[in-house]
């Protein structure tokens, strides 16, 4: 592989890049970036010197300098020796153009609670998966249940966690959100009630509403209350309202980061059985146990529990691999639903996922350490810069749930991009406009970026605070995706 690119070769790759629609340096930087992302310019290759490229392309040197500066700023070029930077991809891969998903360039994303891939482990799993692929190529490639090695690995992980499980009890899905949609379509029809913690995970609430079901919110107690879940209210809601399903996040609840104690789990499992409610527990964040709190998986308390898992937070959301654990007859019903949407997951991803599940804990040590540091920084920064916010210390997961001194979460979210930050407003986590008093802040960014973000939040909060008029008039936020 060449370690440098000469100007003629680059000019050939660029083709007719200059449409004149934008300043030349921008267009040049955009095309080089696309070439790097496409792999047509390899990584770690020195680009031509500014002078030689300017003369080959017939442009001023200033234009090339500005284009290279822009590439450097976006992370596509290293600082390099002199002006000869080498191609690279941004370290934190803020995707460059994914409308509705990533924050626009230049914004710090506090709407997404997600981490980059867990080091080399994910890459290695894919490389190894490719070596196993030939053995599967003679097959059709369709497997609506998931490939056997992955189902075996997931079942073995549950068994090792104290919940004996066979591969027949596992359905592999394209992530936890996909799993929830399959479950909703199978178990909760139109107008059926689905009990949820309040607040809860926004995409789950959206999925419940989109399925035509009705979320039945049960408030979580405030952080200073003696109980972290109001189990009496949940049990009463199950018996009185007879929801078809309960969707719960007992393991590092999103957004509060709480961990449900075992005796609550036991009571809920019993109440669900007697009220005919299917208990669906989302264990997506279970691996992110920051304080070493102990709690058995909810499925340890009843064979009727339906569990959702995912590699998105423990390893990488880009794997798009999750699963459902349930009893085998229910899995058969879920497969029937699944095949109305898709016919199975991609095989290479599943092979990679099987390797990751088999050595599940491998990347977690350093991931948890980094998250603990980030959490400590965020808590300190919030105490220093936003002392009027009441902040709940999470036991795990990725986010801090904060109570604002006045309702104004949506206004803050609308104003925040002016200060360089993208947020998800409190009401996204609730039903019927609740939680204007709250803001979720993830600690997924490194401490230096968290500092910038919290200072920006301070400024945005001041702008909203100085103008009650703004608070009243800014009711709607842009509905972009959150995670
Ligand atoms: C509680 C919870 N469930 C599900 C998801 C989505 O998981 P996946 O990427 O596997 O669809 C998230 C992501 O933030 C989450 O926090």
TrEMBL record:
Keywords associated with the record: Aminotransferase, DNA-binding, Pyridoxal phosphate, Transcription, Transcription regulation, Transferase
Top-level taxon of the source organism: Bacteria
Database matches in Pfam families: Aminotran_1_2 (PF00155), GntR (PF00392)
Domain spans labelled HTH gntR-type: 22-91
Record protein name field: PLP-dependent aminotransferase family protein
Assigned protein family: In the C-terminal section; belongs to the class-I pyridoxal-phosphate-dependent aminotransferase family.
InterPro entries for this protein: Aminotransferase_I/II_large, HTH_trans_reg/aminotransferase, PyrdxlP-dep_Trfase, PyrdxlP-dep_Trfase_major, Tscrpt_reg_HTH_GntR, WH-like_DNA-bd_sf, WH_DNA-bd_sf
Gene Ontology MF annotations: DNA binding; DNA-binding transcription factor activity; pyridoxal phosphate binding; transaminase activity
